[in-house]
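Q: Protein A?
A:
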Amino acid sequence: IEEGMYNENYNSYVNPDKKVLIEDFTGHKCPNCPNAARELEAIHDIYGDQIIGMAIHVSSFAKPTPNPFTYDFRTNWGDDWDEFYGISLAGLPRGMINRTGFGDDSHKLGKDEWGTVVANELKKQIDFKISISSNPADSTISIASVVQNNINSEYNLVVCLTESNIINWQKDGQLNVEDYVHNHVLRTVL
């Protein structure tokens, strides 16, 4: 047995080197989207830093309107990804896990599907080891990657910056919550 963690909740092996990206397509006017954010946090609570969450505000649910939803969380990258992957067409909240299933349209996952897909992704071997370091003295970021498996495809490295602890309005069910904490919000792509 490889070195790893056995998780009773999913009754499966967890590769300790594996990271999983959960892209949560959301909007501050989406009444069901806070439930998806809570699901992402619950998954993160189980697996810790192996989970990378990113909230991507898209569609009419993210478009600012007069009071109280004046803040604009949207980005051009999020809009482009939403259009390319067709996520909001399936209704929000939706998410993608490591962008798997794109070829057969199974990438448009409801929040209740995330846990199972994450558990399966965490069993897989890694294709790349990626290390990121920063030097605050000169404001540089260095990224290095090392191929771990035989791969026969082309890959792109996409670096996304997110911001957490943004206090702003959010529709949550029937409530308009003034001091909702927005976490891992996509801000820019390098």
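Q: Protein B?
A:
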Amino acid sequence: MSYIATTLEGLEEVTKEETKGKVIARGRIEFEKELFDLTSAKEIYKLIKKIEFKQITDILNNLPELEVKELGILCTRIGTHHFKSVDVQYQMKAYLQAKGYTIDLKKKDPILYIDIVDNTCFFGYLIKKEIYKRNYRIKLVADTVHPLIANAALHLADYKKNDLLVDPFVMDGIIVIEAALQKKGKVFGYGKNLRCAKVNAKIAKIDIEWGDYSLDWLDTKFKKESVKIVTYLPSVSKTKLENQVKTIYKDFFHQAEFIVKKEMVVIVRNKDFLKEYLTAFTLEKEYQTSLGETTYYILALKRTI
């Protein structure tokens, strides 16, 4: 029996390693074991059938034999098509009702999951939906980081037991909470306004050492070459001008050069903006993913001096 985990496009390697599976399409990983508590997935479904198609009628005509007579339908879609996901749902509903099935699009279980990626269609039964919607994410800042991006950053950092992990730009705490939930090393979250982060951490029921210290305090809090940093660096915006961000980056990399043990991972929206600051680090590996029109780069930086 096979299962499919969906994830953000560009982060397939993280889910591949978590499931010990294989990438079969953009954002789609197939695996064999019943691993349903994945931290890197969006949805999980049991695979019934896979087809290649040219038009929507091919999807209807190649429907696999279903185990139940009463079910819901959900369709997701990636790629350029002459139809929308809801078109597939309603045409499939009419098609199945004509064959004697009882279809309720609001039904929660079981759900026929129709997953379309370019010209491939996967049929399955939905097992878990919207796993990425962590229940602790209650108080969020405007430029919050997606949990799957935070999870990928921790994976890229090779976050291990006994590591000291530091996020000096904690915002609403997503990175440090994801780290603390893994129950590996000690986690430190620093920032100017910790209210949202502390609320979320309390809901998550995890232990984080907080501090409202500025960047220039980091080298007084940690020994030389003793920590891993995983953080989402500020971007130029309406509230942060370019010269302000450059000052932040200069101070951050000055501190990182002192306290980072071997490597760190930063999440940025403009990786070219970093180049002038990488005097003590080199880019070792990166993931690139998008949410809407925003592109995120998850960069593993290794110290060179």
